[in-house]
Amino acid sequence: MQLLLISLLCSFCLLGSGNQASTDEADCDDPNVFLAADAALRSYNDAKEVGNQFVLYRITEARKKEETGRVHIFFKSEIKESVCQVKNGINWQQCAFKENEGDNGECSAHVLVNVESKVCEIYTQNCSIRKVLEPPVTAVEHTCLGCFNLIDTNSETLLPIVRSAIKKMNRVGNHKFHFDIENLTKAERQVVSGWNYNLQYKIQQTNCSKSLFPEWTPEECSLDQNGQHGDCFTSVFVTPNEEIRDIRLDCHSSTGFCLSCPDEVEKEDPELLNLIKQFTEEYNSNNNHTHLYEVNEVQKATRKLRFSIHICLTSTYTGLLR
To answer: How many angstroms separate the CA atoms of 306 and 304, rounded?
Structure first.
C-alpha cells in the first residue's frame, strides 16, 4: 500500500490534472481498457502478502488519451474478494467470487498501454476495500433437560425439603443433641418423573437434647453457639405430587461423628468409655506381655445389639504383671 501511495503521488506530479481533462470517453469493451484493468488488478494482488486475491467485478468508468503507438487509460472499477489465496500462482481470472462474507472495493487507476506490444505501465492505482464484518455471535444458554441445574438457595421450594432432611437426620442419628441447618450453601435440581435434589448445607448443634426433646421442632430448638458444627450432603427425590421421598443423608459433625448413621456411637460416650476401660483392664490381666497397654485412640464405634469397637493400644510402661 505504501508503494501504491508513492506511485500515486509521483504520477500526479508528472501527469498533472490536465491529462484527464483532455481525454475521451472509452468504451468499457475496448480491449485496451481490459488490458489496463487486468494489469492493474494483477499488480494489486501481487502486492498483497496475505489473504485472498481480488477479481474484477465490473468497470464503471473509462476514459482514454491516445498518443503515437500508445494510449493512456483512466478507469474506475469494482472488485470483489475471491476464493483463491495470494501467492499461489493462479491468475485472478481463474478464481470464483467468495460468496456472502467476501470483502469488496473500488479502484481508480491510470495505466499506459503500448498498443503494439500490449505491455502496460501502471502510473497510478488507488483501491479502497470495504471489509465485510461478520455479525456478532450471541451465546445463548439453555437449561439442560435431564441434567442437574443450580437453583437459588433462597428458594422457598427448598424449605420443606431441608426440614424433612434435618428431621430424618435427628431421628436416625445417635448424637445426644438435635441439630438444625445453619446455612444452605448449594442446591441443584434434576427434572425426572418428579425432581431429584442435591443439597449441601452447614448444620449446628441446638440446645435441645434428645432426652428432653425426643422430637426435633425448629420452633422450640435454637442453635447453640457453643455446640458442634457439621456438614451435610443430601439427596432427595420429590414426586410430581410434591411428596418428599427417598432422603439420603451424609452428615458429619466437625469431630467426624456421623450424624446420619443409626449405629454410630460418639467417641466420648460415657457408656463407650466405661466399656473401653473394662476391655483394657481385662486385656492387660489376661496376657503375659511385659508391657501394660492403654487406649490411645478410638477410631470408630458403632452399636447394634452390642458394641463393635476399633481401638489402638499403646504401651504405658515395662514390667511384669503381678
So the answer is: 5
Among candidate residues 66, 96, 130, the one where a domain is terminated? 130
**Which is nearest to 259 in space by CA: 183, 165, 158?**
165
Give the pLDDT of residue 275. Answer: 78
Residues 80/131, Cβ–Cβ less than 8 Å: no
The domain boundary, picked from 100, 130, 160, lies at 130
Do 218 and 102 have their domain in common? no
Sign of CA dihedral 229, 254, 298, 216: positive
pLDDT tens digits along 236-293: 999 999 899 889 999 999 888 888 887 766 666 777 778 777 777 777 777 777 777 7
180-222 confidence digits (pLDDT tens): 999 999 999 998 888 999 999 999 999 999 889 988 888 889 9
Are residues 194 and 115 part of one domain? no
Q: At which residue does the C-alpha cell 474484477 appear? A: 56
**Owning domain of residue 205:** 148-253
Q: Per the structure block, which three cell numbers stand in for 316? A: 504405658
Residue among 92, 89, 87 nearest 40 (CA): 92
The owner of cell 500515486 is 8
What are the C-alpha distances in Å from 11 to residues 85, 91, 124, 127, 141?
A: 30, 27, 6, 16, 58
